[in-house]
Amino acid sequence: MSTAEQATGATEELSLLSIANEANEVGKDSDNESNNEAEAEAGKKKKKNKKRTKKKKKAGLGAAGQTDTLSVPVSQLFPVSYPEGEICEYTDDNRKRTTDEEMRAKDRLNEKQIFDLRRAAEVHRQVRRHAQRVIRPGMDLTTIADMIENGTRTLVEANGFESGIGFPTGLSINHCAAHYTPNAGDHVVIQNDDVLKVDFGVHVNGHIIDSAFTMSWNDRYAPLLNAVKDATNTGIREAGIDVRLCDVGAAIQEVMESYEIELNGKTIPIKPI
């Protein structure tokens, strides 16, 4: 073989090697591009999944996180849901409201209303406990009313028609049975022998929670307070779907009139009014 032929052969081999290397590089680039595309697609899916995943709200501190001055709104103490309280099961012919799927579906339509009511109930519960702990002889009615209403506004985050106090606070002493509200500047002071009836409400989106309680600081009125508590619990126990109001009232009256109280050496029967 001549020198020219050898040179030509070597040149052809170098060209083939160069083409092969270029093909390998193209293949690598293609593989890299495929891998990059796959990684980018996987990254997009992860981002989509992240967007779809909602962060779960952490459970709050509950009622134990409330301050002595009622400064923490209940929505911060219960960010997920509010306490259910006492739930009374349906009985007899109304049991189908629990077992029937259609009836349960209808009940679920009221979940927003029930949520609002439970929020208002928790506000009332915390303000009520605070009031029962703080109210004492020597306080005037205006101070008590301001304490209850300001505490309610703070805990329910009062906002016009969306949330706030349900109605003016009732503070009725002794012979005044109910619904007395002190006007501004009313400085009637509670005495040791007084019996005080406290009545206030909380509303959320127009749904009102109302509860009243009686306070006294003289043990001789204990039978009166016991009669009221027993009669109230009887009314709750007797209430239910399709129950006639007159029957509930009759049960309350029967319990109330079974009590009596001794005042100044005289036994007096307790009667509802």
C-alpha geometry: globular
Beta-strand proportion = 5-15%
| SSE arrangement, N to C | HHHHHHEEEEHHEE
Low-confidence stretches: none
Sketch the major β-sheet.
Answer: 4 strands, antiparallel
Number of discrete helical segments: 8
Rounded average pLDDT:
84
- The chain-level structural class is alpha+beta
Brief summary of the model shown:
With 273 residues, the chain is of the alpha+beta class.
Name a few traits of the molecule.
273 residues, alpha+beta, two-stranded antiparallel sheet, 8 helices, 49% helix
Structure notes:
It is a single chain. The chain is α+β, with helices and mostly antiparallel strands and 273 residues long. It is 49% helix and 13% strand. The chain has 8 helices and 6 strands, in the order ααααααββββααββ. The strands form 2 sheets. Strands 1, 2, 3 and 4 form a 4-stranded antiparallel sheet that branches. The longest helix is centred in the N-terminal third of the chain and has 50 residues. The protein is globular, with a radius of gyration of 37 Å. The termini are far apart. The model has no long low-confidence stretch (mean pLDDT 84).
Per-chain topology:
Layout: H1 3-52, H2 74-77, H3 96-99, H4 101-108, H5 111-134, H6 141-156, E1 163-165, E2 170-173, E3 195-204, E4 207-216, H7 222-238, H8 245-256, E5 260-263, E6 266-269
Antiparallel strand pairs: 1-3, 2-3, 3-4, 5-6
Helix pairs in contact: 5-6, 7-8
